[in-house]
Amino acid sequence: MGLVSKKICLIGDFNVGKTSLIRRFIDREFSDRYLSTVGVKISRKKVEVTSKDRTVQLLIWDLEGSTKYKRVAPSYLQGASGALVVADITRKESMEHLPQHIQTFTNINPQGKAIVALNKSDLTNSELEEKYISYIQTFPEVARAIASYTSSAKTGVNVDEMFLQLATHILDGK
Ligand code: GDP
Ligand code: MG
């Protein structure tokens, strides 16, 4: 079987760490400087899904943010098999926008798989992590997602796990 490529998108409010999560996953690097994304940047990475004995090439679309919540252009989301929907655990507003981001994605890709990341967990403690993970489950859209994680692009915690989990579920789909 040839190598399958699957498109996934990083979506979420501006400044939550979307670009940083991709850099951590692909380049094993983190920068404190603001990493501006202009338009769309597509990165590739092969992921071995050992549980299925298969390799999938992820085409990871980093979509430009705005200063506030803003829906990304639907055309960017078209054809995506999955999404990593990101919020900043130190900014409640960004968590409140998770349902809208998920809905925008699933409206265009009804079979698409979504994983939710509460990023910047290095800036909080485990008690608050649990509190906010429970809080976001009160949103039906979030509760319907495959999983919710706390993550840190800075320390790398859960970054590989989230992408692997997404790849695994994408291979499960048709
Ligand atoms: P984007 O707009 O969602 O792509 O966000 P960026 O990746 O550009 O990150 C915005 C800012 O947050 C930058 O200054 C990053 O260095 C910082 N940042 C991103 N992820 C983390 C993280 O996990 N922990 C901490 N402490 N800072 C982060
Ligand atoms: Mg960015």
Defining traits:
binds guanosine-5'-diphosphate; binds magnesium ion; 27% strand; alpha/beta; 6-stranded mixed β-sheet; 174 residues
How would you portray this structure in words?
This protein has helices at 18-27, 74-77, 92-96, 98-108, 126-136, 140-143, 159-172; strands at 4-12, 40-49, 54-63, 82-88, 113-119, 147-150. With 174 residues, it is an alpha/beta fold. It is globular.
State the order of secondary-structure elements, H for helix, E for strand. Answer: EHEEHEHHEHHEH
Number of H- or I-type helical stretches:
7
- Structure class: alpha/beta
Rg calculated over all Cα atoms: 15 Å
- Strand arrangement, major sheet: 2-3-1-4-5-6
| Distance linking N and C termini | 15 Å
Kindly state the percentage of residues in helix. Answer: 25-40%
Q: Can you count the beta strands? A: 6
The biggest sheet, with number of strands, parallel, antiparallel or mixed sense and barrel status, is:
6 strands, mixed
SSE inventory with pairings:
Elements: E1 4-12, H1 18-27, E2 40-49, E3 54-63, H2 74-77, E4 82-88, H3 92-96, H4 98-108, E5 113-119, H5 126-136, H6 140-143, E6 147-150, H7 159-172
The structure holds guanosine-5'-diphosphate (GDP) and magnesium ion.
Guanosine-5'-diphosphate is lined by residues 14-20, 31-32, 34-35, 37, 65, 119-120, 122-123, 152-154.
